[in-house]
# Entry
Amino acid sequence: MRKYEVMYIIRPTVDKEARDVLIAELNAILTTRGTENVEVAEWGTRDLAYEINDYKKGYYVVLTAMASSEATAELDRVMRIKEDVIRHLIISLEDK
# Structure
């Protein structure tokens, strides 16, 4: 397992309850696949550097975790499908 950092941006029009459900659902993808030390930091609504799908703001969430490549691949697949996630990035914090 490697240490990964995941950042994703949720549409600003999503209400708080739906946003909390989405964050919990995405975290569950990692935790059900043996991921350890999941730390979630919600940065809140911030201005985007450039417009994404006509949005000028987004709700930022950053998490770090010790995860397998299979778990991060599944997380990447699901975030591509979710319409409420307008951008995401997964990076490994360790050398290969």
